[in-house]
Amino acid sequence: xxxxxxxxxxxxxxxxxxxxxxxxxxxxxxxxxxxxxxxxxxxxxxxxxxxxxxxxxxxxxxxxxxxxxxxxxxxxxxxxxxxxxxxxxxxxxxxxxxxxxxxxxx
Length: 106
Description:
It is a single chain. The protein contains 2 helices and 6 strands, in the order H-E-E-E-E-H-E-E. By secondary structure, the protein is an alpha+beta fold. The longest helix has 13 residues, at 62-74. 19% of the residues lie in helices and 47% in strands. The protein is globular.
């Protein structure tokens, strides 16, 4: 995941930046809120991690969204996308939701 984030080229952190260390937007936050594993013979045969990638910007930023989507597309990552405005922070948040899969069964 970190290699993909480095390729996007924006500052990023896992889950949040430390208090007082948040960079000026645009920046990214990523985290793994849950898994959706596939079982076989009572074991987690395929471990599937749900990934949230959040873009924060001061203004609606189509250029940064296109940059993120180009990198995700290049890596063959299917994503869903949601957008909201966080009034208390005066920031736009664009959320990309996708899965990362590893085969531990072989």
